[in-house]
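Show me any protein, keeping tokens residue-aligned.
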Amino acid sequence: MAPNLIWQVANGFPVINHMQALQTNQLVNVQPADFLSDQLVMHFTGLLVWVPGVWFLWKSRNLHHRIFLYLAAGVILLLLLLKGKHYYSLGIYPALMAAGGVFWEKTVTKTPTRVVLPVVMIGLLLPMAPLAIPLFAPPKMAEYCQWAREALHFDVVTRWEDGRHHSLPQDFADMLGWPEIGQAAVRAYRQVPTGTPVLIYGENYGQAGAVDYFGRQADLPPAVSFADSYRLWMPSNTNAETLIYINDELGEDVQAIFSDIREIGSVRDSFAREFGTTVYLCRKPRRSFAGFWAERVQEVRGQ
């Protein structure tokens, strides 16, 4: 944890602002019972490895072994108190699984059992494989999730961070629409005369990341955002007077500055979490966009 801690100190502990921002619209929906049940669902067949690992560490007389169990319990308790998301605890499981591997090595000594155990694990995993790997297209995946909820009473994976259930797992819905955002940003950029400074702004890090990833072949300038880690990379100043703006709505401040705003493309996939997100090409500022940008950066950094 030392490199992470050093980085946090060097950058003024941005994790604090990040957690405060999440608290109002995401972490408030985290319930202790859901957090604990998600620990069991998160690895699914991995339960057969890390749960025996917990037992092995608990029974061990070696303090060097048991310290891993105490640390893991401390992390779970801390996240319960802070209402952290279930996957925040992922870092504790490699040690528990390593202990589970030792448990099975010491417990299962006969060859037939060593063969049967992996077969059983694979058999348990197969019905749930589509929930971990995108094997189906979104409509088929939505049908599968509905079947899992009704037939297996397995609805944890479709509960999003807003506390509600949706058609698809959040991780899958998050990634839908990213190619369309990147492609629309490329189309917008190509409408700008060569050599004209352009600022590409995404309202969240997924939108900015989509531009950086799917637009990299078109030599787009790096996207900027006020969201999460992108805050650390945002420029204090810009000489651009053209803005490629990506958001699910056109803010009043953007409308007030630019006299020429054109909609280039939007996400139309209703299964996408980014459904409705639009890429706008904004030109002909009524006042200095550079001045407006400097003001906004100062506001964001002052939070």
DSSP finds 14 helices and four strands in the chain. The longest strand covers residues 258-266. Strands lie at 198-202, 242-247, 258-266, 278-285.
